[in-house]
Design goal:
By secondary structure, this protein is of the alpha+beta class. It is 32% helix and 28% strand. The protein is built from seven helices and 14 strands. The chain is elongated, with a radius of gyration of 26 Å.
Length: 285
């Protein structure tokens, strides 16, 4: 069955590559550029007369790939993604990776992490991830855009070194956090401490974070004054722990609100569990 499927694919791609308008870097011009930081690793290749190919691994996320044409008209009907043999690999069969739709407005092709990983594996083997479309600029000409594997292995080694130094979380993952508490409790659990550890680690590495807001809340069970006092204890417990981790006390604003601002109605146990919380909000410049 596999042979019956792969042979037509090879024949189709061979004919397709002869007739299609093709964009890719030449062996002499192919170059990989790495932008590295604690927050992201960005490995990119310029595709002459077309645009750029970008692998991006953000802290706390999986690697993703974006094909960025300079014009948004190339893949209006979507694209197929196939790993093809490079010119120096005669006889190696192509491998289908997936189908894609272009991003509305930009025309970018955003590749899912699982397919981006397949692309990295193909490049490491010397193959070319290739995007194909049946129409180019709305004409009857077909289109092929290939990412060159030239010099990839050495660039990949540097890329892996960058990913090993990434923070475990990114800003989006820690900018808004809720720490939940059992009824009548204000002490931090081990899981809550681990979450706060991540927040503190991020803040100490991102100089653009200038303010931290800690807000304590309670459910509506019991007296209002007691609930306000409980929310105060919870907020102060979180603030004290963040300061113990080395965060600047002057950057932290601690507030407490009792039962005044529930996220859901206090009409079920599950809802009350959600309302007993301290929220931590980070603000950048």
């Amino acid at each position: 069955m596999f042979v019956r499927l792969i042979i037509p694919l090879i024949i189709f791609l061979s004919a397709y590559s002869v007739q299609a308008i093709t964009f890719r870097s030449s062996i002499d011009d192919a170059k990989w550029d790495l932008e590295a930081s604690k927050f992201s690793c960005r490995l990119s290749q310029l595709i002459p007369s077309f645009g750029s190919a970008v692998f991006e691994h953000e802290a706390g996320e999986s690697v993703r790939f974006i094909l960025k044409p300079t014009e948004n008209v190339h893949f209006e009907d979507g694209a197929k993604l196939v790993a093809e043999a490079s010119p120096w690999q005669p006889g190696i069969a192509p491998r289908f990776i997936g189908s894609l739709k272009a991003e509305e407005g930009t025309g970018y092709l955003n590749v899912k992490p699982v397919h981006a990983k397949n692309m990295l594996a193909a490049l490491y083997k010397g193959m070319m991830p290739t995007f194909t479309s049946n129409q180019w600029y709305g004409t009857e000409e077909s289109l092929r855009v290939s990412v060159s594997a030239v010099n990839f292995q050495s660039a990949y080694s540097d890329y892996v070194g960058c990913t090993e130094g990434l923070l475990p979380v990114n800003y989006r993952q820690v900018a808004r956090t809720a720490i939940l508490f059992p009824s009548s409790q204000w002490r931090l659990s081990d899981a809550s401490r681990e979450r706060l550890d991540m927040i503190a680690l991020y803040v100490k590495n991102d100089d653009s974070v200038k303010a931290i807001y800690v807000d304590g809340h309670s459910d509506s069970m019991g007296r209002r004054l007691m609930n306000r006092d409980m929310s105060k204890r919870r907020a102060e417990e979180v603030t004290a722990y963040l300061i113990s981790l080395g965060l600047d006390p002057n950057a932290i604003t601690t507030r407490y609100h009792g039962e005044r601002y529930p996220v859901v109605e206090n009409n079920t146990k599950a809802n009350r569990d959600r309302n007993r919380r301290v929220t931590i909000r980070l603000e950048r410049d």
